[in-house]
Every structure is written in C-alpha cells, then in structure tokens.
Amino acid sequence: MNQDTRLSRLLHVLLHMAQTDAPMTSQQIAEMLGSNAVVVRRIMAGLRDGGYVEAGRGHGGGWRIIRRTDEITVLDVYRSLGSPDLFAFGFSNPSPSCLVEQSVNAMIADRIEAATAAILEEFGALHLSQIETEVRERVTKT
C-alpha cells in the first residue's frame, strides 16, 4: 500500500523554515526532501493560499513561513493539502444490492468516519510549536 507522505514532509519543511529568516528556494526544499522543485511548488501552493507561507520571486526569493508556529496546527497543514483521505479502505461496490454487503459498507463507513473525526480533532490540537519543543528536547539529548 502506498503511503501519502506529504503531511509529514510539509511539517518537516515548515519547521526548518521557522528556524531561519532566510527564504528557502523550491530547489533547496526539493533537495531536502529528495523530491523535485515542481512537486515542491505544487504542495507549497496550498500553504501559500492558506496564508501560512509566502513566495518571493527573483534573486533572493524563495519560500518563507509568515505565521508563528503556535498559530499553525497540523490540521491547517493537512487542509492545505486538500484534506486527502486518511485511510486507504474503500468499497468495491458503494451501492450494493446485497444486504450483507450493505451492512459491511455501513459498519465500516461509520467506523472510518469516527476514526477520521478523532484524528482530525488531534491534528487540530497539535501546533507546530509543540513539535518544535519536541525537536529541542531531542537536540538536547544528543
């Protein structure tokens, strides 16, 4: 099963951006993530549209975080990605005539909906500043 790593990658980038006043080019971010600049620009656009980063053009340009980390939640970043599915489960037939399959779909859908709501609540309560604190604790331990 393929995993969508965009959320963790964007959190990683934002935390690095928060540690410096210097802008980061799409190419620099791409090298950090082992990706390419076109992909970086595409995923950063959602953060820009949400008002979390800005992009400067030309010499000395690049991406900058423009909100404090205590003002950005993991939910904000998740939503900047277009709120992708959190679970890979789906139904082979979303509108089955079989009563057994209808029951399976209904029960699984209810549980996925509840689990999604719980995860999104946790994402909304987790600020980037809390992750920064975790980073500092790890640094002091090494």
Automatic annotation (TrEMBL):
SUPFAM superfamilies: Winged helix' DNA-binding domain
UniProt xrefs under InterPro entries: Tscrpt_reg_Rrf2 (IPR000944), WH-like_DNA-bd_sf (IPR036388), WH_DNA-bd_sf (IPR036390)
Species classification: Bacteria, Pseudomonadati, Pseudomonadota, Alphaproteobacteria, Rhodobacterales
Gene3D superfamilies: Winged helix-like DNA-binding domain superfamily/Winged helix DNA-binding domain (1.10.10.10)
PROSITE patterns tied to this protein: HTH_RRF2_2
Name of the molecule in the record: Rrf2 family transcriptional regulator
Source organism superkingdom: Bacteria
